[in-house]
Design goal:
- The complex is a heterotrimer.
- Chain A is mainly α.
- In chain A, 77% of the residues lie in helices and 1% in strands.
- Chain A is globular, with a radius of gyration of 19 Å.
- The two termini of chain A are 16 Å apart.
- Chain B has one domain: ABC transporter involved in vitamin B12 uptake, BtuC, CATH 1.10.3470.
- Chain C is globular, with a radius of gyration of 18 Å.
- Classes of the chains: A mainly alpha, B mainly alpha, C alpha/beta.
- Chains in contact: A-B, A-C, B-C.
- The structure holds adenosine-5'-triphosphate and magnesium ion (MG).
- The site of adenosine-5'-triphosphate has 12 residues of chain C, from strand 2 and helix 1.
Amino acid sequence: MIGRDVSRQAAIGAAVLALFLAVPLFGLDEYWIYILTIGFYYAILASSWSLLVGYVGRISFAHVAMSGLGAYTSVVASGTLGLPLLLSIPLAGLVTGIVGLAIGRLCLRLHGAYLGLTTIAFSEIVRIAFTAEHELTRGSLGLPAVALFETTDRIPYYYSFLALLVTCLLIMWLVLRSRIGLFFAAIREDEDAAASLGVKVVRWKIFAFTFSSIIAGIAGGFYAHFVQLVTPSMMSIQEMGFVLSMAVVGGFQNIFYAALGGVFLELLLEMLREIGEWRMTLFAVVVILILRYAPNGLFGEIVRMALQRRTRT
Amino acid sequence: MSLLAFSEQVINGLIIGVFYALAALGLSLIFGVLKIVNFAHGELYMLGGFVYYVFASLFGLPPVAAVLVACVALFLVGMAIEHLLIDPIYRGKVERVDEYAIMITFGLAILLQNLMLSIFGPWTKRPEAIFRGRIEIGELIVSGDRLAAAGVGIVLMGLLLYVLRYTWAGKAVRAVSQDRETAAIVGVNAKLTGMLAFGLGSALAGAAGALIGPVFLVYPTMGVIPVIKAYVIVVLGGLGSVPGAILGALILGLFENLATVLIPDTTRALAYKDAYGLVLLIVVLIFRPQGLFGEKVRRS
Amino acid sequence: MTAQLVTDGVVKRFGGLTALDHVTFEIEAGELVGLIGPNGSGKTTFLNVLSGFYRPEQGSVSFEGRSIVGREPSALATAGIARSFQVTKIFRRLSVLENLLVPGLTDWSAAPRAAAEKGRAILDGLDLGRLAGEPAANLSGGQAKLLEFGRIMMLAPKLVLLDEPFGGVHPTLKRLMHDTIRDWNARGTSIILISHDMGSIFDLCRRIVALQNGRVIANGPPEAVRSDPAVLQAYLGTRSARAAS
Ligand SMILES: Nc1ncnc2c1ncn2[C@@H]1O[C@H](COP(=O)(O)OP(=O)(O)OP(=O)(O)O)[C@@H](O)[C@H]1O
Ligand SMILES: [Mg+2]
């Protein structure tokens, strides 16, 4: 039974991927290609955040701070130190991985709201520091970044971000479907019981933090060279709220749904431009309603209903 | 540094500490009874600022009356929030309680911020102050609006402490804080007490926002930094402890104001002003999660 | 023959309260020892020390001749000490079978397929076979206790620590649990059994240790412990003893 569900989900996934691969071929406006590319960036953040929250049951408000840290790392490494992007972006992942490891290590015994508070504090400290250190970062003006490609064409960016998103999702999926995913779930359900059965709780919690931080850092590094500017606002609480909304609306208990939520909300944000700030108000209402009445998220519910109908007929 | 500058900073620190305490007290009260950290607390504070602005500046109500209106309005808003979003936790309607409580209040914060942004725009507003002019103690000059607002704040806090200690409602709040189930068995209505606590907590946040509005201006994101301060305070004082919150607030107010004068590189010191408390928060959470004064919590 | 697990002068305090007061204890490999004592006498605390959840302030704990103080619970589980919890701790949103796979896969050399097969066999033995695919949250209280047994079996431990396994369990199920415990023991697994159910304790154990206020007040065969004046005093006279102090 479970096997059939997996193959169906794989089929749905392949269809969605084919759709995104084909989109530029339909002659979509450059502008929308650009928006979709940003959507892919958010999809990576939303899904790697949901890995932590949905699977391991650890909340973090420092995820966009990690992405920002990765962005600054790569920009400084490529700009000031003159490293090629091929090195500076992995370096971004390395740095955020180390920071994630350190935070994961420090916050081992914290959970729930305490972890939320600690990570908010960390995130704000990083943002404040990057705003304050003018000589290095030019404060809130931000730092210009080298472009990823020497062309103004949007298409290469589109496909490289799509490739990055698919790679990240694939790696996360491989980890989650291995026994590590089961250990994550055990830790989420009951840490003491997991430990009593031989699950190395400490190791896997740190691993999860490190892993999701690396993904966020690499995504941030890529993103910086796409928009060609990094500012501390990339690490604001508001930005974190946006990523959280995406994961929740899509479905934070599944990395794929969270990723779809990222693309979906970014598109919606652009489509609803006329209503201005009411957009975020609307999103927030939807987030609250979903948390309260459909915790599987929009895509979780859609897929659930589709599968149910299939099994009934 | 001269003695004058020093005592000025001390007084400013204490005044700021009062506002911090007002916001933090509400947070602590809510945590005590409902065992959740309200991540929308800063936005309730902001809402208080806006209600005050609307009534004092647009409708021309006397400032003190407008503060009271803000308190009442936020009390009602808080009760409604508890009823709609928090109470389901206790009726077993929610699957992942911890994450739900954090995310739902965080979502509420996003909602309130953007709602106010949509209605009023991002521009700052300066509502009527309770009292203009300034007060001179020898050479020491304190601006009157701050002092008056702090005075009202102290009165409100006194009122709350009185209610908690001597009234039936206060006893219910304390009973539920200690043990929800036992309280329910001896006849305390836990549901109502929860609403009351959230309402009171919100009213306090609203009062803080209303009082500070004329000094630090009113705008949709005005709650972001102060609420983080409030977190620092409740963590310092031990989550759920009311006296701890007051003490924590005074410590933080003093600590920040003194740190800015004691660090030699002034521009840097100012740029990092909001970070001191956060470092304190992380250190306390990691090494003394029960707070500076709290007792160690039991492992379940 | 040296004992499998030895504690010497173990002290554990919670603030001003001394939950374990110089507890000296040992269990031979293959022994089945009952641990009794009034509420709050320190039984669960003792188990938490043995399984690595608490670190004692004083004293030593050694397993198979090596000190285990300060070792992680997960490491002790791998070393052969498995436990159940007084308040059942199952993974509610995992399936019943997945609950068994967690301990089954902590050994990296175990293949998932083999672990699943072993898990199914164990579930069948515990009468939970047809519930394998259900979310564990759907189990009844007694079935959840059985599931904890099943998870322990997956670890194939050398020493099993059971904290109040019969609480709120129907006699039929209790019999199944008794059989399981006897079966483990017959295969050479040593067991420490905490229970307030004196019938079960006297039925199963050949040695009983009694705790009161964190101190060992009796240690010996069932008949001796049953008639020990200190034990009688602890069980019958708690009220008068408290009134006197
Ligand atoms: N984490 C803790 N923090 C503070 N006190 C504790 C803690 N755990 C246990 N205690 C105290 O230690 C004493 C022993 O508790 P323990 O749970 O070991 O008793 P027990 O013998 O298992 O009782 P019962 O038969 O009721 O399960 C009790 O007084 C209890 O209140
Ligand atoms: Mg016990």
